[in-house]
Amino acid sequence: MSGSPVEIDDRIRSLAQVLWDYHQLRHALAPSDAILVLCSHDLRVAERGAELFLAGWAPLLIFSGGLGSITRALMTTPEADQFAGIARGMGVPPDRILIGNQSTNTGENVRFTRALLEARQLPTASFVVVQKPYMERRSYATFRKVWPEPEVRVTSPQVSMDEYLRGYSHGSLSAHDVIGIMVGDLQRIRVYADRGFQIPQDIPDDVWSAYEELVRAGFDQRLV
Length: 224
Prior knowledge:
Layout: H1 10-23, E1 34-38, H2 44-54, E2 61-64, H3 79-89, E3 97-100, H4 106-119, E4 126-130, H5 136-146, E5 151-155, H6 161-168, H7 175-194, H8 205-216
Parallel strand pairs: 1-2, 1-4, 2-3, 4-5
């Protein structure tokens, strides 16, 4: 973030809530061939993926993630290995888990997962994708661009923005950091579609206005 941390007053919180609500798709879950967990700094996403597997939504649980732009500064072990350890600890059988620990971004998550499944001759026509709450939409848009054929439903840990900002994410990230990441992800929804990395997503005027105001307020550290 530029300069000193910005106080998260009621106005900032209200603007951030607009982005938070937009980023989430609120897809209804359906039984699928696999649960694909897109790994990151947020270990609670691993718990959400394991919970869905244990609830019977799919017979296969895939964790995809190496070390990305944020986790390189926070972790030494690949994200997917840490996430898989959490799932095993929650009772997911190891033989129902696949690990892809080389990807560094969302597009690679999808491409490398497809290659992993094809190498094992595991046809997969439908996915539940699990991601952080503020990355649902970008994950969906990326998946549909990189691998358009399967059915995809996206979900995330079922928490409010206030709960998330109070420390649901990685302990090394402050609420200011998380809002900055949300702002950067909103920008990427527009920029990455223009670059051919994602399918386009409509961004309502009030959402883009909230984004611009947060950028002016100094939440600009994660812009491309």
